[in-house]
Design goal:
The protein has 381 residues and is an alpha/beta fold. The protein has 13 helices and 14 strands. Strands 13-12-11-7-10-9-8-14 form an 8-stranded mixed beta sheet. Strand 4, helix 4 and strand 5 form a beta-alpha-beta unit. Helix 1 crosses helix 10. The longest helix has 20 residues. The protein is globular.
Length: 381
């Protein structure tokens, strides 16, 4: 029978590159499931050009005016990070579900404040966040094996985001600043791979991190490294860099019976995964054939959006929201606390009475800057 439900009415906050290049194409791929009714952007010329290209009728410079006039079912927030919290809260309060770009918020305090504006256990509205790498068939298949115990216990992990951003990249006024981006590559770039890792292996217990501002004129770090211990017993090496000319996003999971690797840049399909049996596995070729996904679904905003729309239809909290969407942000906060204070940090330390719960620099950006420019001898430069 044909689906007689009306389309989900969608509004976008922000009409720049991420909206034009990713979100609007993903929404177009949903066919009759959605109808994009409005854009919100203070840059009227940019908004007009985007609206004309994608045939969006509603154009607003004020979010509250749009919410009152359009009553959208879903608001997609693709504005700069400092605007995330207020846009998500306003949209939830207006009764809309929200899908917000990363990072979810500038701090754990902001994230938890947003959660207080969500609906009850059933029906929503709920907020979820753009962590699209969870939704490819490779990750979904590995998640299945973890649930079934097929590969044995996870023991060792690698989670590296090695990207390159030149000085011109940071000329955009909000980039590389604590008050507008919240942090450096740990916050705005590596958070994708860290979210994928945590969504597969579960919560972390403690982290020991170092960071530095080595080559770019930013308030925040441009490289970070950490050793992370997980509740499942695994130990993971995490590196986030914006200084790496050969760019790669690399994850490796060593289980009792197999190594599973993913190497890509900004998205993957099944060809980016490698499944290697341990020497003791009988008929390794057959085992690998059984481990691999049967279908090939690339990681993408489209895949996550489809899952979000399914959750909306069921009235259920979507994946990458609530505690599930908080894990990576919490690890980022732990990494900053560890690197700036120079000590190992446990999840239990990140409570509302701790400065790093409220800001990734711990409440003292000057002290954070000094910590991030320490030399090997421990003095500042």
């Amino acid at each position: 029978m044909p689906d007689l439900r009306p389309p989900v009415r969608v509004a976008l906050v922000g009409s720049g590159g991420i909206a034009r290049g990713v979100h609007l194409p993903a929404l177009a791929d949903m066919g009759g499931r959605v109808e994009v009714t409005a854009l919100v952007d203070p840059d009227e010329a940019l908004m007009a050009a985007t609206a004309a290209r994608w045939r969006v009728p509603g154009r607003y410079t004020d979010l509250h005016a749009m919410l009152a006039a359009e009553s959208p079912d879903l608001v997609v927030v693709c504005a700069p990070p400092a605007a995330h919290k207020d846009a998500v809260v306003a949209s939830l309060d207006a009764g809309a579900w929200v899908w917000c770009e990363k990072p979810p918020a500038l701090s754990l305090a902001e994230y938890d404040e947003v959660a207080g504006h969500e609906g009850g256990r059933d029906g929503g509205p709920f907020a979820s966040y753009v962590f699209q790498h969870r939704f490819g068939s490779g990750a979904e298949r590995l998640r299945h094996h973890l649930a079934q115990g097929t590969l044995g216990r996870p023991l060792v992990g690698v989670c590296h985001t090695l990207w390159y951003r030149d000085a011109a990249y940071f000329e955009v006024p909000w980039r590389g600043r604590w008050d507008t981006e919240g942090g450096g590559p740990s916050m705005g770039h590596g958070i994708h791979q860290m979210d994928l890792m945590l969504s597969l292996l579960g919560d972390w217990t403690e982290v020991t991190a170092v960071m530095s501002t080595s080559a770019r004129a930013t308030e925040t770090e441009d490289v970070s490294a950490a050793v992370v211990r997980l509740e499942c017993g695994a130990t993971v090496s995490v590196v986030n860099s914006l200084l790496s000319p050969r760019e790669t996003s690399y994850l490796r999971f060593d289980f009792e019976h197999a190594t599973v690797e993913l190497e890509h840049l900004y998205g993957y399909d099944n060809a980016h995964w490698r499944w290697t049996p341990a020497p003791h596995v009988d008929d390794g070729d057959a085992a690998v054939a059984a481990w691999r996904p049967e279908e090939d679904v690339p990681s993408s905003h489209r895949a996550q959006l489809a899952a979000l729309l399914d959750a909306m239809e069921r009235g259920e909290r979507p994946r990458a929201g609530g505690h599930d969407g908080r894990r990576a942000l919490e690890l980022v906060a732990g990494m900053y606390r560890s690197a700036i204070l120079g000590r190992t940090v446990g999840r239990r330390n990140l409570t509302p009475d701790d400065g790093f719960y409220h800001a990734m620099h711990g409440g003292d950006p000057r002290a954070a800057a000094r910590a991030l420019t320490r030399t090997e001898s421990g003095t500042s430069v």
